[in-house]
Amino acid sequence: MTPGGSTGDSNRHDSRSHPGTLKFLPEEFYEPFLSQSAKEKKPSPIRGLLHLESRPNVISLLAGKPNPTLFPITNVDISVKSPTDPSKESVLQISGSDLDEALQYGPTAGHPGLLKWLTGLQEHAHGRKAGEGWRINVGSGSQDVLYKAFVALVNDGDPVLIESPAYAGFISVLPTLHSEVIEVPTDANGIKASSLREILDNWPSSKPKPKILYTVPYGCNPTGMTATVERRREVLALAKEHNFLILEDDPYYYLYYGAMPRPPSYFTLETELSEVGRVLRFDSFSKIISSGIRIGFVSGPTKILDAVNLHTETSNLQVSSLTQVMTYTLLRSWGYDAFITHTEAVSEFYRKKCDVFEQAMVRQLGGLTSWTTPVSGMFFWFKLLLNSPDSPNAVTEDSETIIRTKALENGVLALPGTVFLPGGGKTAYVRASFSLLEAEGVEEALRRLKEVILEARAV
Ligand code: PMP
Q: Whose CA is nearest to atom 9 of ligand 1?
């Protein structure tokens, strides 16, 4: 099926409110958003000219490309399950010109075939058409492009808006540039837009305002929350009013198993605004194809993605050509419909895992913990109710000692919520991942946790 065609499937959206009449922010708009280090980066004298090698009648003496006749690999076969019938396997062969591309250096932004496929996917899944002021860079996982986008946008000491609790892998990026952490509280419906408004409305006029807001809007890692469409709209309206960009980090988008219709992405919703171009969207194939293959991608304004590219030119040059070609070979053989069929099977798998986990929570930790059931992703975020009616002041509101020490001593490993607080502090919350364990493992882990909580409450 071609990009933009109709399938009626659950992962496709058409919430563009002004089709054909979108107004895009001009290139100059992004100039003040770029960091000093991004502005100072110079294009690589070689990588910047590589595309000219394909010009007719050009003989290239340009790049130090190794002679591929010396490469010992002559063929790569990948065996893959059918998305419609996982019992059926087929073999995809990477040979000929595909193999040549897989084994050689390639363009910084990504393999052209893969980029084209992904661009079509963004139209298919998010209603965003190619050539409308945005493009894509492939990254070694989404973490790679997330980090580079951060460095391209933030100057030393700049304030950064970050949802709280937040993905620990982004919290650890913040000290790189000594960012001032501005925590924006969340609840089960996503970012609390009223709190965000309060922060921004009371921002001291003497201080530069935050340029970016970081959020994981589907099946948030760690809280499991999925932001409602209303909250997303409110946050977008604030982005326009207070002039910041939204970093939409969405690796759990295709793991949604909640009620339909699903909330549209920020990347889709921003087309409702009078001006489009405030969203940088980060996708990942880690949870749906393979985490080891290290393929993620960022979709967003060309000017910012060019700055991300310059960073890549001076760090890892590009993502592995081999894994890009492997991914492209698989996706090309599937097409968009089969890709969506596959992601639906993935989300159904995690829905069942989530159900099993919750049922065990009720049996083992009912009354000892509280939680909101996630509708996407692979995490359960629950609060330890440590003060029993008999000993109301027994322990503080803190999961740190209980989870990091006591639970481990009792043979269960989970993460205390404290590691997800961007500004530090205490919390009684715990993050448990339910992606791998079978029912018996879940039951036993929670039983062990129950012993630890009961012991703490008995103090
Ligand atoms: N963002 C979030 C919220 C994540 O949970 C992860 C993976 N744990 C990443 C980004 C990084 O994913 P990738 O494997 O694509 O680099």
A: 143
**pLDDT for position 458:** 79
pLDDT above 70: residue 105: yes
Q: Does residue 133 line the site of ligand 1, with CB under 6 A?
A: no
Sheet holding 190-191, edge to edge: 134-140, 295-301, 279-284, 245-249, 212-215, 159-164, 180-187, 190-191
Helix axes 142-153, 302-314, angle to 10 degrees: 110
Nearest ligand 1 atom to the CA of 295 is: 15
What's the gap in Å between 138 CA and the centre of ligand 1?
14
Which is the closest atom of ligand 1 to the Cα of 220? 3
What pLDDT digit, counting tens, does each position of 432-444 carry?
999 999 999 999 9
Cα(294) to ligand 1 centroid in Å equals 10
Regarding the beta carbon of 176 and ligand 1, being less than 6 Å apart is answered: no
Instruction: Say if the ipTM goes beyond 0.90.
Output: yes
pLDDT at 202 over 90: yes
Residue whose structure tokens are 């018996």? 440
| Residue 17 pLDDT class (50, 70, 90 cuts) | very low
- Tell me how far the alpha carbon of residue 378 lies from the centroid of ligand 1, in angstroms: 12
d(CA 261, CA 374) in angstroms, rounded, equals: 16
pLDDT in tens, 18-39: 555 788 999 999 999 999 999 9
Q: Is the pLDDT of residue 4 over 80?
A: no
Angle between helices 193-201 and 229-242 (to 10 degrees): 10
Token pair of 137 as six digits:
């860079």
Q: Is 290 in the pocket of ligand 1 (CB under 6 A)?
A: no
pLDDT of residue 19: 52
- Rounded CA-CA distance 98/329 in Å is 9
Spatial contact of 83 and 342, defined as CB atoms under 8 Å apart = yes
**CA Rg, the chain, in Å?**
24
C-alpha of residue 282 to centroid of ligand 1, in Å: 9
